[in-house]
């Protein structure tokens, strides 16, 4: 039964403030904290794999798996003896590897860290009394999110019920990761190319100062250009569908 309105001193009725169950209020921060930690771990795993790949492909012991530097590998030596084959391999294989690396290094982290950040925002909100009477996040569905084929629409969770500048920025990044456009994927290609340059420089290995500076400038320049393009594209990203609000269980009075 709904609580009766309380009368103000002036005679007008004031609706009673609704609060969520006490057990939910107590457990809510721990639930969001656990979710945030899980997404943080996934994000760190992605970054660790990206950082470990150049080391694993090198001959640096004990981590490196190669028996010799890339410059002394049999296939590379054969290619350097035939410049036409070397150019063909770079032209055909380079863009494919750059596209894959760009997706892994840039777009894949966008599927995890925004969710972690949103969960930690809800941890802070769950400790604030002004949020005690409302849910903090909700779920919406969409047809065009990435992932395996599904019979029904894909659910996007952890969407804020009450928006702010911070949650708007995080949901933009969330949308970029789970609903990427072709322009975003193309922009990430340049970051993948910079990552490929860094991998080659590390596994070759490039040891002279001029070479290290040149590879660093090219790699960082491509990474900076990618970040610039993604920030510009984020302004054009449409908002994710609004989350469904939980029903309060009250019936509206008939007019």
TrEMBL record:
Membrane-traversing stretches: 30-53, 86-108, 182-203, 209-227
Record protein name field: DUF4013 domain-containing protein
Organism whose genome encodes this protein: Cellulomonas fengjieae
Annotated keywords: Membrane, Transmembrane, Transmembrane helix
Top-level taxon in the UniProt lineage: Bacteria
């Amino acid at each position: 039964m709904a609580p009766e309105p309380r009368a103000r001193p002036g005679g007008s009725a004031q609706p009673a403030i609704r609060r969520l169950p006490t057990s939910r209020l107590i457990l809510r921060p721990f639930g969001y904290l656990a979710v945030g930690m899980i997404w943080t771990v996934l994000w760190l795993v992605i970054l660790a794999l990206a950082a470990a790949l150049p080391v694993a492909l090198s001959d640096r012991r004990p981590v490196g798996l190669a028996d010799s530097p890339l410059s002394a590998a049999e296939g590379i030596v054969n290619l350097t003896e035939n410049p036409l084959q070397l150019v063909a391999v770079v032209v055909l294989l380079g863009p494919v590897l750059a596209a894959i690396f760009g997706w892994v290094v840039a777009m894949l982290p966008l599927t995890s860290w925004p969710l972690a950040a949103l969960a930690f925002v809800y941890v802070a909100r769950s400790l604030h009394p002004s949020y005690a009477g409302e849910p903090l996040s909700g779920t919406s569905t969409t047809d065009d999110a990435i992932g395996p084929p599904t019979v029904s629409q894909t659910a996007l969770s952890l969407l804020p019920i009450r928006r702010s500048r911070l949650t708007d920025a995080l949901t933009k990044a969330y949308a970029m990761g789970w609903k990427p456009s072709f322009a975003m994927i193309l922009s990430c290609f340049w970051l993948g190319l910079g990552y490929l340059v860094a991998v080659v420089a590390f596994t070759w290995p490039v040891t002279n100062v001029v070479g290290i500076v040149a590879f660093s400038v090219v790699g960082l320049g491509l990474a900076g250009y990618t970040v610039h393009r993604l920030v510009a594209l984020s302004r054009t990203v449409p908002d994710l569908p609004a989350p469904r609000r939980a029903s309060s269980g009250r019936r509206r009075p008939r007019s």
